[in-house]
Amino acid sequence: MKVAIFTNAYKPISSGVVNTIEFIKNALEKRGHEVYIFAPAFYDYRDSEKNIFRYRSVDLTRKVKFPIAIPFSPEADQIIEEFKPDIIHAHHPFVLGKAACRYARRLGVPLVFTFHTQYEMYTHYVPLPTAVTRYSCRKIVKAFCDRADCITTPARSIAELLRSYGVKRRIEVIPNGIDLSPYLEVSPARVEEIRKEYGLEGKKSIIFVGRIAPEKNLVFLVDSFRMVSGDNPDARLVIVGDGPQLAELKKYVRDTGLEGYVVFTGGVDYKSIPFYYKMAYVFAIASTTEVKPLVILEALAAGLPIVAVNAPGAADTLTDGHDGILTDVTRESLARGIDRLLKDRDLYEGLRRGALETAESYSIDRVSDIFLALYEELIKAKSR
């Protein structure tokens, strides 16, 4: 089978969507299928893997380093004609999603669209009134869904959200997958090196991994940690990642007197991420804008109990009391959840076992089998 994937973000950008696409690509190729990625050019980055086409791109804004593709290219036209995909899979409804739609119609092959992101929750990046941009997002998403042969989304709550937009097309809930093997091969010596590097020996680290941006609700998380730290002097909050809010968040930590209790690692190479999870005690997340956050799956794979606000993404993944604690969306409630795990060893060990058990159900091999079965079904239906 030949699969053409269109995405507005790919390596070297590090995000849940990018990592998910790479996992699927590798899993399909391992099974003998051909995959071609169509993505924006990223400055002077050069791909080392085969079958990647980069569209010329421009910056979204000066503030956010996120190139936007110019979605027209005679070279891309030629590659598509020669590659002759059996199916086209778009991961965004904008920009290259439109290109994916054009090619699917031209070639008469199925178009699959995966809805990863609650776009209306990211309107603070657009210099227009929020109400206008949110309304426009919903309309654009619905219009694109109406052109797809099938929509997939990683979370049931998001399938319901799409229905509320008025989407009538077929929707399949297929979870994000994760490669579990790096979490089974972690060197204890390297984990200890990271602890020493950041002065975390003998500390209980509450870790967050992700983009440092307003939608991740990190000021909320820092405030919750401040409530915990007084009664847990050996607790540390470790924030792993980079993003547009990093400088502002560091200043907030200084201003609130938490310097020395909150560690910022900055961006970390993705291959090293399992070591950071393994050196932590608890994973915490306060975001309310997620769909199916890959960081939660990664934390589960590392055997980390999770404390999360009860919102889409976390609520679609975790079972309260089995692999994590879901709290009300208040700083006090999140703080109580973290505090319980820091003090109750029996609860901690039970959730740790549950985390590892849950992680098994998100194996990329299992998820890629689901996608393959869907692709085959849609191709047969289209040929009829």
Topology:
Layout: E1 2-6, H1 16-30, E2 34-40, E3 52-55, E4 57-59, E5 67-69, H2 74-83, E6 87-90, H3 96-107, E7 111-114, H4 130-147, E8 150-153, H5 156-165, E9 171-173, H6 181-184, H7 188-197, E10 204-209, H8 218-229, E11 235-240, H9 246-255, E12 262-266, H10 273-278, E13 282-285, H11 294-301, E14 306-309, E15 324-327, H12 331-343, H13 345-360, H14 364-383
Helix pairs in contact: 1-14, 8-12, 11-13
Keywords:
single chain, 384 residues, alpha/beta, Rossmann fold, 2 domains, seven-stranded parallel β-sheet, six-stranded parallel β-sheet, 14 helices, 17% strand
Structure characterization notes:
- The chain has a seven-stranded parallel β-sheet with strand order 3-2-1-6-7-8-9, sandwiched between helices. Strands 12-11-10-13-14-15 form a six-stranded parallel β-sheet, with helices on both faces.
- It has helices at about 15-30, 75-85, 95-105, 130-145, 155-165, 180-185, 190-195, 220-230, 245-255, 275-280, 295-300, 330-345, 345-360, 365-384, and strands spanning about 1-5, 35-40, 50-55, 55-60, 65-70, 85-90, 110-115, 150-155, 170-175, 205-210, 235-240, 260-265, 280-285, 305-310, 325.
- It has two domains: about 1-175 and about 365-384, Rossmann fold (3-Layer(aba) Sandwich), CATH 3.40.50; about 180-360, Glycogen Phosphorylase B (Rossmann fold, 3-Layer(aba) Sandwich).
- The radius of gyration is 21 Å and the shape is globular.
- Helix 8 packs across helix 12 (about 330-345) and helix 11 (about 295-300) crosses helix 13 (about 345-360).
- With about 375 residues, it is of the alpha/beta class.
- Strand 1 (about 1-5), helix 1 and strand 2 (about 35-40) form a beta-alpha-beta unit.
- Helices cover about 45% and strands about 15% of the residues.
